[in-house]
Design a protein that fits this description.
There is one protein chain. Helix 9 packs across helix 12 (221-244) and helix 10 (194-205) crosses helix 12. It contains 12 helices and no strands. It has helices at 2-32, 41-59, 68-86, 92-112, 118-124, 129-135, 147-154, 158-165, 172-191, 194-205, 210-217, 221-244. With 245 residues, it is an all-alpha fold.
């Protein structure tokens, strides 16, 4: 009898946590789905997010020091990104172009001693500036570093990488390697042009959406998207350089 009651208490607690996370999952699904017009996209992302949350609850261990919110958020977002990947949201042609842009940004950064302006990247690529800006819309959902990038850097699998991100690693050497990258990223963000820094801060720290940021900066939502994409591509180029030496 007591075993059944204990199991019911655990199930009730799990349902309570899921209920509390639903608004967070929905908000993240709307943010991740921006720019996609596929039917049922948001519903599928919410479903993936709930699965990610349930997996987080299964694996979460409070004794290891990580905050549940941080651990679960990463799992939820990872599940949503996996759902996008299953839909081939980032086709090979776009991925190839992104790599080329990153290489050009790295080349110009070495030459100029600073992050290049959008106009400079477009010129180096022999592209019309408006065409270059239009291209930026394809990269709004890129991450600065993926779990796979970090895996290559510190030589651990996905589960281990998540443990470093959530501060629950029991390997001091690997943990230090991860947080060294974190410190480098913070310094590189400070080197970005002012408007790019502002957009990143409002989007990631203030949790504002593109429309809200557009109002704050008195620019169009499309322009916010372009600035965001440019900053992410710039940071990817430099962080990959740090990883690959």
């Amino acid at each position: 009898m007591w075993k059944r009651a204990y199991a019911q208490n655990i199930e009730d607690e799990r349902e309570k946590i899921v209920e509390e996370f639903i608004p967070i999952i929905k908000h993240l699904a709307y943010k991740v789905s921006k720019g996609f017009e596929e039917n049922n996209m948001i519903e599928d992302l919410i479903s993936a997010g709930i699965v990610g949350l349930l997996e987080a609850l299964e694996k979460y261990d409070a004794k290891r020091g990580a905050k549940l919110n941080t651990f679960a958020y990463l799992r939820i977002r990872g599940a949503m990104i996996d759902e996008l990947r299953s839909r081939d949201w980032f086709p090979r042609s776009a991925r190839s172009k992104a790599k080329k842009i990153e290489e050009v940004i790295r080349k110009l950064e070495n030459r100029l001693g600073r992050y290049p302006k959008e106009e400079e990247v477009a010129e180096e690529m022999h592209m019309d500036f408006e065409d270059y800006l239009s291209l930026m819309k394809d990269y709004k959902n890129l991450s600065i570093l993926s779990i796979e990038d970090l895996h290559e850097s510190i030589g651990e699998d996905r589960e281990k990488v998540i443990s470093y991100v959530t501060d629950e690693s029991d390997d001091p050497e690997k943990y230090a390697a991860f947080h060294e990258l974190e410190g480098i990223l913070a310094r590189e963000i400070e080197r970005l042009p002012e408007k790019q820094k502002i957009v990143l801060s409002l989007y990631y720290h203030e949790d504002m959406n593109m429309k809200e940021i557009a109002k704050v900066l008195s620019i169009t939502e499309a322009r916010v998207c372009q600035i965001h994409s440019q900053s992410i591509l710039a940071l990817r180029s430099i962080m990959k350089k740090q990883i690959n030496g």
